[in-house]
Amino acid sequence: MIFLGIETSCDETAVALLKDEREQLVSLVSSQVDLHQKYGGVVPELASRRHIEVLTPLIQEALIQAGLNLKEVDAVAVTRGPGLVGALLVGMETAKALSIGLGIPLLGVNHLAGHIYAAFLENEVKLPALALVVSGGHTELIAVDEEEKFRQLGTTRDDAAGETLDKIARFLGLPYPGGPQIDLLARRGDQNYHRFPVAEMDNPLDFSFSGLKTAVIYFVEELKRRGESVPIENICASFQEAVVNSLISKTKRAIKQGSYKRVIVSGGVAANSRLREKLKELALKLNVELYIPSPGLCTDNALMIARAGFALFKKGLTLSLKEDVDPNLSLYE
Asked: What is the distance between the alpha carbons of residues 284 and 33, in angstroms, rounded to a whole number?
């Protein structure tokens, strides 16, 4: 079967064609970095307008590159939520039109499930497994008992890891998107330059990064107040190390509590080089199988949406045309 995947949850328009579970026919992503860079973050209305402009041509280009015509598509999978409501609507209405016009199933995908299924595109993942999802607005530890059966073990109480990286990058005057910029500068810095604190929660698997963000801001402002130079590379390295250590320590705790033998890590922050390095060390130390998608599959893409659609289709979980997007869609309902 040929699955058409559509992803428009935030600031990237993505289209992909996937054959069955793993055969990647084509994957296209139209970035909006140029559009939002001058604002230092995503402007929802501008994001929606850009999706409208590029989505249909992107679908046409994907079909051309795959050597297919539209009638050869067997199902359409689209991100239903969570995300920006206007952006989600562009993808959903396009997917509905294709479903009606072609008479094919409509599959409404949870964006977080998509990130988890990104690992399935390059590996034969056996379940149950533990998943750490670290995308822009989400930091969660999830028990994946079987396909389409998820349980939340831990989540962030305030800012997500990716959100914190972007906010500190903006504070330091780094270009948008900030996470990759911090990763790049941190490689040239001293991660032991300063120890930034990270809060612990009542639930030992929950995360909190708001206090860390505040600590970095106060530290830099104090350096400036004393007339000292701000060593950006060292700040980035120390700050990134605090974020990564928090993610690693909670993941380690979850592995031990659940006696997990397999760990999936996905989402945009999973492309961070330091996090990938320390996750590999952790997996080796605890003797667990680690599944991290290639960096291009960690960030938002439509292949992961198509693969999640495949899982829904197998279970007969098609979406009614009466259903709508849900910007706060839960993975656990």
From this structure: 36
First to last CA, the chain: 28
Which positions ≥6 away from 263 have C-beta within 8 Å?
129, 130, 131, 132, 251, 255, 279, 283, 288, 289, 290, 291
What's the CA gap between 210 and 16, in Å, rounded?
36
Sign of CA dihedral 137, 143, 146, 149: negative
C-beta separation of 260 from 129 below 8 A: yes
pLDDT in tens, 188-233: 999 999 999 999 898 999 999 999 999 999 999 999 999 999 999 9
- Closest C-alpha to 164, from 190, 142, 135: 135
For residue 57 the two structure tokens come to 């041509």
Task: List strand residue ranges (DSSP E) for 74-197, in order.
Answer: 75-81, 106-110, 129-135, 138-146, 149-155
Superfamily of domain 2-116+297-314, CATH level 4? ATPase, nucleotide binding domain (3.30.420.40)
Token pair recorded at residue 304: 């992961």
Tokens of 318: 């098609």
Listed by start position, the domains of the chain span 2-116+297-314, 126-292
C-beta contacts of 233-236 below 8 A and 24+ residues apart: 233/185, 233/186, 233/188, 233/189, 233/190, 234/189, 234/190, 234/193, 234/194, 235/172, 235/189, 235/193, 235/194, 236/172, 236/182, 236/185, 236/186, 236/189
Neighbours of 23 (CB within 10 A): 10
- Cβ proximity of 189 and 233 under 8 Å: yes
Q: Which amino acid is at 106?
A: L
pLDDT classification of 333: cutoffs 50, 70, 90: confident
Distances (CA, A) of 263 to 288, 322, 324: 7, 36, 32
pLDDT at residue 230, as a whole number = 96
CB-CB contact of 152 with 332 (8 Å): yes
**What kind of architecture, by CATH, is found in domain 126-292?**
2-Layer Sandwich (3.30)
How are strands ordered across the β-sheet holding 23-31? 23-31, 12-19, 2-7, 75-81, 106-110
